[in-house]
Design goal:
By secondary structure, this protein is an alpha+beta fold. It folds into two domains: 65 residues, no CATH class; 71 residues, no CATH class. InterPro entries: DUF6530.
């Protein structure tokens, strides 16, 4: 599906038809595209870059772009990826949280059912390993091309 260019987020680089490769949601996802572009929240003279998940409410002719579409500053996308990797590593080891310099991950507090929910998270990482590995392999390939690994 074509990503719109008439809305406030201005896409510069697109991944259209993302719904076809959206991990376990492939071919049944409302996330129709991803883009990197000029953030919708910029004021006059500003040009912050953001990443956006484009969600659509229905078919191409009758549906519309959802207000539930998410837009994040690019650095937060990388930070979320780092956090997910930390959660995966914690789920695999079960005994310590990985930390990198300046990125101190901790267990969330306040939920009495946390131990069970951490087990659910671990089960989900295992159950979705095939899809997660595809995404992680893409990320590794991109980081290699950037000379970061």
């Amino acid at each position: 599906m074509k990503i719109p260019t008439h809305l406030k987020h201005i896409p510069l680089i697109n991944l259209e038809n993302y719904d076809e490769i959206d991990g376990p949601h492939a071919n049944k996802s409302d996330a129709k595209g991803l883009s990197v572009g000029i953030a919708q929240w910029n004021g006059a003279g500003e040009a912050e870059i953001s990443a956006k998940v484009w969600r659509h409410t229905g078919d191409e002719k009758e549906g519309k772009w959802s207000r539930q579409s998410e837009e994040l500053p690019v650095h937060r996308v990388f930070d979320l990826a780092t956090l997910v990797c930390s959660a995966m590593q914690y789920s695999a080891s079960g005994d310590h949280l990985p930390n990198t310099s300046g990125f101190n991950v901790s267990l969330a507090e306040g939920d009495a059912d946390r131990a069970r929910l951490l087990g659910v998270m671990k089960e989900q990482f295992v159950a979705n390993k095939k899809h997660l590995d595809v995404s992680l392999d893409r990320l590794v390939e991109a980081l290699k091309k950037l000379g970061k690994i």
